[in-house]
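> call design_seq(struct)
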């Protein structure tokens, strides 16, 4: 949700979360592997609402080549941050997985994202950011307005952060189930991590100033610096304090020095991520300085448009607090069963969430970025036929990738789980089981996301708000039901509640959208997905058989023996499954294969030397 908003009314609507009761990954902190119960929200919007105008559409025709180069740089930067975020998650697992500290740190580390999203994210995205783009067209390039906006934003962020820090103890007690010494340590972690709220907001504000002036590269690459800092901090932690495999990290032997290395460097990464944007902002030559007085700036009119947007965000994020409280029940008290590494906790849920949302963030968001423009133009021209066509095309193309990704995550859940386990087989199996449950709902998650783009293309934020309220009720009922399960099954129950809302989400959205848009080719979309599923299941069967060769079905098998062994298994079996899937689709003459592969093959042929 902490995405920037493009310079258009339609794009402002893109900042609205789509109707999933899910945790969320913050693109303002895009370089970090989503930590989170607060990890899916921004992935729901990702680049589709990243506040970056289309690279090929600069302010003037002369800027197109430069913008195209910037777009390529942004794509590389985003990919680099994704890879480093993945590496960071692996190193974090080596540092604290299979310890009580892992669940306490996870519970504390969710709060900065969640609080910013719930209180300030909607205001920044839906109310403040569109004004920057308008002001950048003034003769002074928006210097006066942006100075006042930044002054207001910084003061608001400082006040919000200060209040949250003062209330750290009750907030932590309310949002988690930790008690005793675990709650004390969670509060200490919170005091180190909650200042991130200010720097998240500063990064968002500075990034939008750059985007509004067609300067994109620094905003895309800053998260890479964040991840480098965080990874270095974790490596120092492992070197000084020891890994989870070599040292027993407990609440009783935890030190303030370890807190500085773990939580302090996590916040330092966010600080550096924000600070690096000061240089390119200064180079814009806007002569920015503190300015007060905001009457007549036009923010009031924009705020009225954003009411539904902010309401949707608040409703969705409030529910995450309850989810986080349920997720911390297994490891809540000092003597809780979840204190044993044999019972999954919030660590396993967050790692599995990061993995299952990855295909959506890489595939669906990319397609939605392109197709939203087409849908918005069609809606502006009142061409409902073109809007329906673009929507159907987006759903079919996305489905070809996400259906396979769901089966691949299900089959490869074991080696994926081992990557984040710190080398502990029991933790790897917990993540694998959680991921298997989540993977079932992955294609539906992306479908619902794209269905909601059709609402936003028509500047309709009211319908998503209503849908969000319906899904929150369903999701909260299922999440609270998970709290009634035995401690060892609570995390799996929460994963099942995510999957339930993912599956029901597109069904609810479909009825609302069909009433507004009519028949958008549901039968054709369903048939296409069935063909994708047949091919994916064929690849899944081959993959499952291949996994047996890597010891997947035996305790202490090769696949479960270490992180490098899991990575090797993924590389071999994952590649095999992808090849089988494409071959089967080609044999079935699925048109979407050629539409996706032909542009890639053409680029490869163009790079080959001519004879």
């Amino acid at each position: 949700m902490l995405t920037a908003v493009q310079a258009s009314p339609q794009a402002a609507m893109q900042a609205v979360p789509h109707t999933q009761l899910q945790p969320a990954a913050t693109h303002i902190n895009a370089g970090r592997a989503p930590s989170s119960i607060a990890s899916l929200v921004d992935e729901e919007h990702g680049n589709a609402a990243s506040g970056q105008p289309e690279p090929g559409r600069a302010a003037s025709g002369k800027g197109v080549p430069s913008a195209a180069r910037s777009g390529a740089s942004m794509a590389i930067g985003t990919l680099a941050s994704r890879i480093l975020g993945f590496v960071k998650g692996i190193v974090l697992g080596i540092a604290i997985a299979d310890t009580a500290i892992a669940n306490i740190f996870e519970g504390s580390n969710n709060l900065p994202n969640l609080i910013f999203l719930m209180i300030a994210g909607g205001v920044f995205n839906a109310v403040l950011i569109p004004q920057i783009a308008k002001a950048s067209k003034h003769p002074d390039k928006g210097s006066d307005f942006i100075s006042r906006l930044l002054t207001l934003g910084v003061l608001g962020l400082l006040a919000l952060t200060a209040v949250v820090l003062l209330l750290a103890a009750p907030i932590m007690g309310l949002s988690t189930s930790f008690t005793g010494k675990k709650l004390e340590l969670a509060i200490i972690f919170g005091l180190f991590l909650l200042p991130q709220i200010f720097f998240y907001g500063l990064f968002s504000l500075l990034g939008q100033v750059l985007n509004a002036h067609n300067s994109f590269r620094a905003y895309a690459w800053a998260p890479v610096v964040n991840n480098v800092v965080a990874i270095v901090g974790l490596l120092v932690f492992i070197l000084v304090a020891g890994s989870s495999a070599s040292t027993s990290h407990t609440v009783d032997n935890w030190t303030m020095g370890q807190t500085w290395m773990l939580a302090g460097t996590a916040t330092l990464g966010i600080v550096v991520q924000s600070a690096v944007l000061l240089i390119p902002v200064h180079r814009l030559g806007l002569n920015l300085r503190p300015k007060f007085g905001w009457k007549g700036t036009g923010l009031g009119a924009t705020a009225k448009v954003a009411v539904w947007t902010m309401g949707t965000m608040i409703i969705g994020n409030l529910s995450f607090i309850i989810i986080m409280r349920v997720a911390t029940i297994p490891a809540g008290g000092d003597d809780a069963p979840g204190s044993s590494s044999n019972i999954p906790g919030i660590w396993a849920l967050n790692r599995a969430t990061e993995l299952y949302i990855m295909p959506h963030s890489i595939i669906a968001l990319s397609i939605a970025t392109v197709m939203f423009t087409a849908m918005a133009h069609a809606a502006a021209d009142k061409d409902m036929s073109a809007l329906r066509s673009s929507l159907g095309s987006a759903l079919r193309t996305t489905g070809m990738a996400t259906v396979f990704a769901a089966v691949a995550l299900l089959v490869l859940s074991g080696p994926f789980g081992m990557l984040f386990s710190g080398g502990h087989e029991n933790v790897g199996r917990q993540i694998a089981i959680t991921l298997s449950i989540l993977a079932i709902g992955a294609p539906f998650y992306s479908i619902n996301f794209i269905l909601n783009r059709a609402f936003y293309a028509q500047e309709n934020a009211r319908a998503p708000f209503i849908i969000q309220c319906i899904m929150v009720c369903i999701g909260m009922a299922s999440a609270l039901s998970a709290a009634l399960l035995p401690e060892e099954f609570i995390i799996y129950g929460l994963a099942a509640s995510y999957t339930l809302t993912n599956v029901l989400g597109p069904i609810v959205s479909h009825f609302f959208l069909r009433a507004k848009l009519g028949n958008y080719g549901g039968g054709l979309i369903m048939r296409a997905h069935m063909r994708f599923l047949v091919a994916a299941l064929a690849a899944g069967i081959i993959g499952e058989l291949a996994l047996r060769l890597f010891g997947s079905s035996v305790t202490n098998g090769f696949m479960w023996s270490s992180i490098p062994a899991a990575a090797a298994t993924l590389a071999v079996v994952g590649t095999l499954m992808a090849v089988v899937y494409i071959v089967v689709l080609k044999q079935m003459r699925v048109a979407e294969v050629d539409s996706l592969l032909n542009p890639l093959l053409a680029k490869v042929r163009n790079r080959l030397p001519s004879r």
